[in-house]
Amino acid sequence: MSRTQPASYSPVHIVLHWSIAALILFQLVFGDSIGDLGRALRNGGTPDTATAFMGNAHIWVGIAILVLTVIRLLIVILRGVPAPVPGSKLQHLAAKAVHGLLYLLMIVVPITGLAAWFGGIRAAGEIHEFSKPAFIILITLHVVGALYHQFVLKDRSLSRMVSSKA
Ligand code: HEM
Ligand code: HEM
Fold first, then answer.
1. What residue's CA is closest to ligand 1, atom 4?
2. What are the TM regions of this chain, as residue ranges (predicted)?
């Protein structure tokens, strides 16, 4: 199947990028909430409203990330993404590796969370807990790279993830 490479990210792709990023930040900041809910349930008590709400939010926001990421990957496969901004082979490889690892986490982390919570699979829980440092390292590299491209190299890399007309 031959497909022409698009000149820009589609508006849907851009909205998905920023929505998923916001949901992941929520999970990283409030990740402890589901631990509090688990402890309250294990102690046989009834969790208070705030603990129950935030614990359930962790589950539903995590599922939303998984579903939205699958939709985004389908868009990547069916429509493609624009060619990378000009740069060395090494820069392209580094960007590709960071993007690939971010996608991997966006799929593996919610699945291991579901397996730990609903399936009681201990190993899945251990992998899931590793998600926090892994995400923080990758997001930091990604953001530093994006800002470097936009403000030092001035190649409008960030602009094209803000508007499909950039
Ligand atoms: C991309 C989506 C998700 C992210 C980024 C995420 C992130 C986190 C973080 C940062 C923690 C705290 C880890 C720590 O430092 O102790 C955590 C714990 C946990 N999450 Fe998630 N999570 C996601 C999705 C889910 C989903 C869908 C579930 C399903 C129920 C889930 C279940 C859990 C469980 C069971 C824990 C361990 C609580 C404990 O015993 O301490 N997560 N998650
Ligand atoms: C949890 C946070 C984030 C995740 C998981 C994430 C993930 C990704 C992924 C996988 C791509 C590859 C292209 C695609 O398929 O969409 C991408 C592109 C991009 N991201 Fe992020 N991102 C996050 C946050 C940010 C932030 C905060 C910025 C801004 C500083 C940013 C700026 C960009 C830019 C500019 C591109 C396009 C690069 C290009 O093709 O020129 N991202 N992001």
1. 27
2. 12-30, 57-81, 101-121, 133-153
**pLDDT > 70 fraction of the chain, expressed in percent and rounded:** 98
Residue 80 belongs to what domain range?
A: 11-161
Task: Give yes or no for residue 107 CB within 6 A of ligand 1.
Answer: no
In this structure, is residue 18 part of a structural domain?
Answer: yes
Q: Which ligand is nearest to the CA of 157?
A: 2
pLDDT above 90 (res 138): yes
Cβ 13 vs Cβ 75: under 8 Å: yes
Determine the pLDDT at residue 152. Answer: 94
Per the structure block, which two tokens stand in for 79?
């429509």
Phi then psi for residue 62, to 5 deg, are -60, -40
Residue 100 placed within a domain: yes
pTM of the model: 0.94
Mean pLDDT score across all residues of the chain: 94
Query: Going by C-beta distance under 8 Å and a sequence separation of 6 or more, which residues neighbour residue 98?
Result: 138, 141, 142, 145
Give the pLDDT confidence score for residue 119 in this predicted structure. Answer: 97
CA-nearest residue, atom 38 of ligand 2: 157
124 alpha carbon – ligand 1 mean position (Å): 10
| 45 DSSP 8-state letter | S
- pLDDT grade for 121, boundaries at 50, 70 and 90: very high
The pair of structure tokens assigned to 151 is: 């403000």
